[in-house]
Automatic annotation (TrEMBL):
Record organism: Vanrija humicola
Family: Belongs to the TRM112 family.
Gene3D superfamilies: 2.20.25.10
A Pfam family per the record: Trm112p
GO molecular function, one term: protein heterodimerization activity
InterPro entries according to UniProt: Trm112 (IPR039127), Trm112-like (IPR005651)
GO biological process, one term: rRNA (guanine-N7)-methylation
SUPFAM superfamilies: Trm112p-like
Signal peptide limits: none
Protein name per its UniProtKB record: Multifunctional methyltransferase subunit TRM112
Amino acid sequence: MVRLITHNMLACHVRNCNKDNFPLAFADVDLVVREAEFNPDFLRRFLPKLDWPALVDTARSLGDESLPDDMPAAWSDEQLKALHHVLLELHVEEGSMNCRGCGHVYLIQNGIPNMLLAEHEIGR
């Protein structure tokens, strides 16, 4: 399933695509919310790996306004639960992720993104 925790680490790798290739922009998505067990310790450990501005922009593009513009220095339980919801409970089932740089489209079907590239698209 494409969750925002995964999406926050995906970039376009088409040959010569090195500008505006992150984050990939969702389009025509079927979004599903699936509850997941809340684990604040996991979230705290994962925070340094996040690209916060990309996460906030992506969440907002999907209609979730719960994250603040800037990453909090100290996290309340309410803020951690909002982060948990965005990272682990929002699932993109269908749609696409589109590169803003080269326009490549990565289709998502049954929750699985197709990140494979044709041979002529692979960077060397």
